[in-house]
Design brief:
- It contains 16 helices and no strands.
- It has 298 residues and is mainly alpha-helical.
- The chain has a domain at 86-293: MetI-like (MetI-like fold).
- α6 packs across α9 (172-182) and α12 (213-228) crosses α16 (284-293).
- The longest helix is centred in the middle third of the chain and has 32 residues, at 88-119.
Length: 298
């Protein structure tokens, strides 16, 4: 009996976890909803169209665009039918070529200009920065006609090169965005590199660029998104050459050609959106950091 009592006393009982009353938990949840109600409403507003497109892509042709929002029967073969109805792989290759080269050329030309505007002292720097802002506010439609005449004389209409090559001369928005990020880097890093004998090119390459990766990634993502979703440019220069169409232009023609089969059109839309969604989630951290620090200083 004594041994049993000893063993019982030696057992260490775990402290009981006090649970919050159900009313208090409900009150806390309601407070959280009240604080984040605007964010929740915006999230729902953005997600509803995407969910509608996704659900419609699995419907049959008779149910699409009816009052039924949930598929009666699921048809994943719609995504295979998209490739049978239109050369989506060809459009995908053209979009990758257009967006990839345009983004690469933009970085090669815009990063040195942004570095010169943010880190170097030279006469006319402020005026050049104002010119960049004015160019950023200038609509693309204003210069569409004269630029088309120039590329027509060069014999490049009907291809994607009139949309790719101008990025070798910089992009106003990208220059502005990268410049705003570079001014947040303390000048002491550049001064230390110059004291060690580094040139401006070495300072840019080995000191500034590694620290400016978030801003550069944000500018690259913006450029890739704009070119991937660009419809006016490919329509203007490649409208009569289906072999050079991008996904945005091919999707519009697909909807016009098969206007009754909205389920296939929505399936094609999902396939067009998928690479952008994957790219954004892979570069989300750098994108958010680049946007957050790009407007700290003027």
């Amino acid at each position: 009996m004594t041994a049993l009592m000893t063993e019982t006393e030696s057992v260490v009982t775990a402290p009981s976890v006090k649970k919050k009353p159900r009313g208090r938990r409900r009150q806390g949840f309601l407070n959280w909803v009240a604080v984040h109600c605007v964010a929740i409403a915006l999230a729902v507003a953005f997600m509803v169209p995407i969910l509608f497109v996704l659900l419609t892509s699995f419907m049959d042709a008779q149910q699409a665009l009816t009052k039924d929002l949930w598929p009666r029967t699921w048809h994943p073969e719609n995504f295979l039918a998209v490739f049978e109805r239109a050369p989506m792989l060809l459009f995908l290759g053209n979009s990758i070529l257009y967006s990839g080269l345009a983004t690469l050329f933009m970085l090669l030309s815009s990063v040195p200009v942004a570095y010169a505007l943010a880190r170097l002292q030279w006469r006319g720097r402020t005026a050049a920065f104002y010119i960049v802002i004015v160019a950023m506010l200038l609509p693309a439609q204003v210069t569409a006609v004269p630029m088309y005449v120039v590329w027509a004389h060069l014999g490049l209409t009907g291809t994607l090169w009139p949309l790719i090559l101008p990025n070798l001369f910089g992009d106003a928005f990208s220059i502005f965005l990268i410049r705003q990020f570079l001014v947040t880097i303390p000048p002491s890093y550049s001064d230390a590199a110059r004291v060690d004998g580094a040139s401006e090119w070495q300072t840019l390459r080995h000191v500034i660029l590694p620290m400016a990766k978030p801003g550069i990634a944000a500018a690259a993502l913006f450029s890739f998104l704009n070119t991937w979703n660009d419809y006016f440019g490919p329509l203007l220069y490649t409208g009569e050459k289906p072999g050079n169409w991008t996904l945005s232009l091919g999707l519009a023609s697909f909807r016009g050609q098969h206007h009754v089969d909205w389920n296939l059109t929505m399936a094609a839309t999902v396939l067009v959106m998928l690479p952008i969604v994957v790219l954004f989630f892979l570069a989300q951290k750098q994108f958010v950091e680049g946007i957050k620090f790009s407007g700290v200083k003027g």
